[in-house]
Amino acid sequence: MDLVIARPEGLYCPAGNFYIDPWRPVDRAVVTHAHSDHARRGNRHYLAAAPGEAVLRARLGDIDLQVLPYGQVLAHHGVRLSFHPAGHVLGSAQVRLEFEGEVWVVSGDYKLEDDGTCTPFEPVRCHTFVTESTFGLPIYRWLPQTQVFAGIDEWWRANADAGRASVLYCYAFGKAQRILHGLDTSDRPVLVHGAVAPLNEAYRDGGVALAPTRLLTEVSDTDVIRRALILAPPSAGGTPWIRRVGEHADAFASGWMLLRGNRRRRGVDRGFVLSDHADWPGLQAAIAATGAERVVVTHGSVDTLVRWLLDQGLQASGFATQYGDEDQGPG
Ligand SMILES: [Zn+2]
Ligand SMILES: [Zn+2]
After folding, report:
1. What is the pLDDT of residues 239-274, one digit of tens each?
2. How far lies 266's CA from each of 16, 168, 269, in Å?
3. Model confidence pTM above 0.90
4. pLDDT, the chain, mean
5. Which ligand is the nearest neighbour of the Cα of 134?
6. Alpha helices in 206-294 (DSSP H)
């Protein structure tokens, strides 16, 4: 019996009568993390991992939300459900389902590298693993994040020395906080766009150490702005907000920056390859660690990963879902 099937509303657990990350409004939604393509408005009840409560409320407002600490089991219609860290963003979880001896794990989005802003990914043994494949192509291999942060630091220093502000476009939830945690900002100011600030607060409330930040709109001293790193969602480009910055260099931080065409399309000076998703070796390692004999791929490069899994002798197929990628969205 399949513990999870694809329905027009989203991924559905027939035995438990609930959905996981549904894209249409349902009665009971189990949510893996607060990115907008996985956590949508309009569901009657929400269940999520406890560390994600503040970010979910920051994004979805006043919802009927029940939370469960990582590893704690909730029994519902005979299905034993528990959340396990996915290492993607604060509160992100894999959903483990156990019913009549069968174990399925739905990953949501995940990455294996520990970035210090959320509980690191934890492999969970299962019979069937439902995985993302956002960067499921052999070309996607990430450098260690320390090298990426060193590159950002060097770029920022060179700009500041030349009297230019440094505008770094990045997704407002997850990526921005990862940068604020990973960069050494002790001798230079960091300014943020209004879309980034509430997420920073949710992370700080959750005990994650982030560099001190101020809103760009609260700073009028151009000497400060010229030395600053300014974090903004991609949607802020070309708006009146960016004109406050004056002369600046710009860059974009995303896994997609690995491809030169994407850098050109964004029209920025620099691309920093920094992703909150597993790269190709990461997907393979995560799948192997589950011990699953069957894998279902939900989004990204579904066909490529399915073909590779079949070549490994595993059962593999895809689900048609409506998950996108936060970095490609409006920000
Ligand atoms: Zn995500
Ligand atoms: Zn996703």
Report:
1. 999 999 999 999 999 999 998 888 888 889 999 999
2. 44, 12, 9
3. yes
4. 95
5. 2
6. 222-227, 240-243, 260-266, 280-290
Determine the distance separating the centroid of ligand 1 and the alpha carbon of 325, expressed in angstroms: 7
Which ligand has the minimum distance to the alpha carbon of residue 91?
A: 1
Percentage of residues in the chain with pLDDT exceeding 90? Answer: 93
* CB distance 269 to 251 below 8 Å: yes
140-145 long-range Cβ contacts below 8 angstroms, 24+ apart = 140/255, 140/258, 140/279, 140/280, 141/279, 141/280, 141/281, 142/113, 142/255, 142/273, 142/274, 142/275, 142/279, 142/282, 143/273, 144/113, 145/113, 145/115, 145/178, 145/182, 145/274
> Helix, strand, coil: what percent of the chain each, to 5?
30, 25, 45
- Element spanning 81, H or E: strand 79-85
State the ligand closest to the CA atom of 321. Answer: 2
Is the CA virtual torsion 307, 308, 311, 316 positive or negative? negative
The single-letter DSSP state of residue 233 is -
**Ligand nearest to the Cα of 35, by number:** 1
Determine contact, residues 131/111, Cβ cutoff 8 Å: no
Cα 323 to ligand 2 centroid, rounded to whole Å: 6
Identify which ligand lies nearest to the alpha carbon of 298: 2
Q: How far does the centroid of ligand 2 lie from the alpha carbon of residue 277, in Å? A: 8
